[in-house]
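Entry 14. Structure prediction run on the chain below.
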Amino acid sequence: EGGAHLEEEHVHKVYDQIASHFSSTRYKPWPLVEGFIVDIPPDSLVCDVGCGNGKYLGVNKGAHFIGCDRSANLISICNQRGFDALVSDGIRSCWKANTFVYLCLSHLIIRITPSASPCCTTSRQLNAGLLH
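Output returned:
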C-alpha cells in the first residue's frame, strides 16, 4: 500500500506534470525497440504498454497499434498526434485475454517490481508472438 502511494505521488503525478517537456525530449526511438517493432508483421494487433508520448506507435505503419499509459497528459499528446491511445494501468491490464499478437513493454519494464510484474498480468492478453 505504501509503495503504491509513493509511486502515485513520485512517478504518475510527476509524469502528468512534466508531460509536455518529457515529450519534447523523448522523440527518438531506441534502436533495439525500433528494430523489434519494424519486424512485426503487417496487420498484427500490438499494444504499447507505457507508451508515453507514442514515439513507437507510428514506427510500423503496417501493424495496428494501441498505446496505453497511466499519464492522461501523455495520452493526450498521443491522441493529438493521431494515435489510438488510452489511459490504462499497464500493470493491472484492462484488456481481455488473447487481444494482442504483440506487446511492447519498453517503457514499463524498467519500473517492474517483483510484486507487480506485467509479465504475469499483461502477458495474458497475448495470443501469439513475442513478449519483449
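Helices lie at 2-25, 31-38, 72-80, 118-121.
Filed with the rest of this week's runs.
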